[in-house]
Amino acid sequence: MSRFGDATAVERVADGRYKVELDQTFGFAEALNGGYLMAVLARAAVDASPHEHPVSTAANFLRVAKAGPAEVLVESRKTGRTAAMSRVTLVQGGEPVVDALITTGTLESDLEPHWTGEAPPAMPSPEECSTFASGKDDRGFADNVEMLFDPASMGWLDGRPSGRLEARAWLRVPDYENDGYALALAVDALPPVVLNVGAKGWAPTVELTWHMRAVPRPGRLAVHGGGRLVAGGWFDEEVEVWDSAGRLVAQSRQLARVGRGLPG
Amino acid sequence: MSRFGDATAVERVADGRYKVELDQTFGFAEALNGGYLMAVLARAAVDASPHEHPVSTAANFLRVAKAGPAEVLVESRKTGRTAAMSRVTLVQGGEPVVDALITTGTLESDLEPHWTGEAPPAMPSPEECSTFASGKDDRGFADNVEMLFDPASMGWLDGRPSGRLEARAWLRVPDYENDGYALALAVDALPPVVLNVGAKGWAPTVELTWHMRAVPRPGRLAVHGGGRLVAGGWFDEEVEVWDSAGRLVAQSRQLARVGRGLPG
């Protein structure tokens, strides 16, 4: 099993109760990655459901999760032929850390879209992209999640933000076959899009909803981040994930708080 | 008070427990409107919170809500200076009908955006739009929520769908001042965008997340609906709501099931 597979494993200890061990290398200095936590929650929800895929996940990030032991509670709310719905909570130190609503369903693996809107804007090939490996703080995450960033969206690193809410990268989870859990990771793996309009530092996610739209094919995932509005210290970030066959496989929006550097 | 104000009133009967009377005229033949139900949930969440506005709402629609008495349960999960988070459930006949995660916060009423992406595509003036009043089935809703539809997005009514996932209208709640609850209604008031690619009939919402981005000014709201993908019987619908001052005041995405008329 890969590092990601191990780090997101859930052990069923009772009906709707799972033991997990949160892996420090899926975090940064400030906190464990939200996409990683959602992958853990989705594994528990799917285990407790008759369906195969985490079709819809909405998560409220209440507190900072720490590396080490934690529990996932899954409460089934409705089980249907097409979809099953549950309330899922990550608990640590006796407190809820992430609350989620997860709907599971079963997507056909050879599903062809009936209708798709425009493709996302073009992105440079992986060879033209860069790892932009930064300091040792996030070395663990960079080892676990191979990301190649579009240089046009990384000017903020050198004090030249693009002036648009954007971030783009190719993403691959080493030694791991693309699936819904890798998509959970992908929708929250980019640097905050607000860095490109002058904000600095960590931008804590308050709420993130993502939908799995198809079973991803093998290969690198194209991850496109954008946003619409920064106001009053809040911003939205939208992410679309496209697979190697050019199919839209996941879409997300999060509402987050702006870090330092901007008014409000 | 207006019909909408009366129909969304919540009566606190205990800590985190509210009595409501769901109003049949906010429904269609199939079900009560989801935006109406979210407005009811948001009122209870704000009542139980120190903050003024329903900044983020994610809802799972489990069962069809019926007109008549119901209860709203609000469970506080974290109360902070900037935001308070809760789990909120609409209960009817002893069963959960809608599960929601609601984050409340307080938005300044004179908030100016620090950064906004492109404005939405132009829409014809209200005078160039039409009510397209249909049969008596939805007369109640049409009386409660004044909507003027962009004719270019209503071709499906005459068997000429535009071929794009789209729906657009001006919206006004009669005798009611625009606020966060009116926005909850606005993000789920359009005809399903999937009607414009050939689907027919009701398209039940599975999950809807919406964010309140600013306190709306008085006047008609411009409601723009789009979408990205129809596949395997699922589609997404995105709505942006702009106020009379040209500010983005709400944004939503829902995942829903396609009605009749399309494969999958």
TrEMBL record, chains A, B:
**Coiled coil located at which positions?**
none
Domain annotation Acyl-CoA thioesterase-like C-terminal: ranges: 126-258
Question: What are the Acyl-CoA thioesterase-like N-terminal HotDog domain coordinates in residue numbering?
Answer: 29-104
Q: Which SUPFAM superfamilies match?
A: Thioesterase/thiol ester dehydrase-isomerase
> Which residues, if any, are the signal sequence?
none
Q: What is this protein called?
A: Thioesterase family protein
